[in-house]
Design a protein that fits this description.
single chain; 2 domains; 5 helices; alpha+beta
Amino acid sequence: MRKSKINLLVNREDYRRYEKYFYWTRIIAAAAVVLFILSASFLFFISFRDNSQINNILATKQSLLISSQGHESTEAKLIYVENKYQDLKDFMKNDAYSLPYYNLLSTAIETSTETASLKSFVIGKNRDVTFAVSFSNFNELMNFFRFVESEKFLKNFENITLKSFTAVGGDENKKSSYDLNFTGKFIPIDENKN
């Protein structure tokens, strides 16, 4: 009888041992194929989901761009208002709150004499003040000097100094005038009073 197959493994025990290796190799290969198919399916699903999200975001972006094309002037106005609001916040942060101090000084000057006028007023954030008072006659100037030395006036200042005195003599066309320039620092005004 003629043999169609050649047995290269002479020993049956060797063949069984090799057969176990082939069996485990087939199982590992099948598991690798299944794992590859599951991984590829998972990656395909993730890619499909991400692509659909990207397409939705792009469609939303396109619709927002189309709807915002007619609103450039409104956007510019809103940016302008926002910038002005920021400027106002910066100003308020550095503001000296000068109105109560101006009113205090102006009222004090008006009660001291009839012709005295507040010529200039500059106040800093730390309540440092420089102001000028102008008079049209000498008697009013002397009355104001007495008033400046009174406790009623000095209680508003931590310190006050006469910086300069200017007198312009009158002639036929001009009246005489007297200017007093002061520097000092106000005492803080209680916010509850104002």
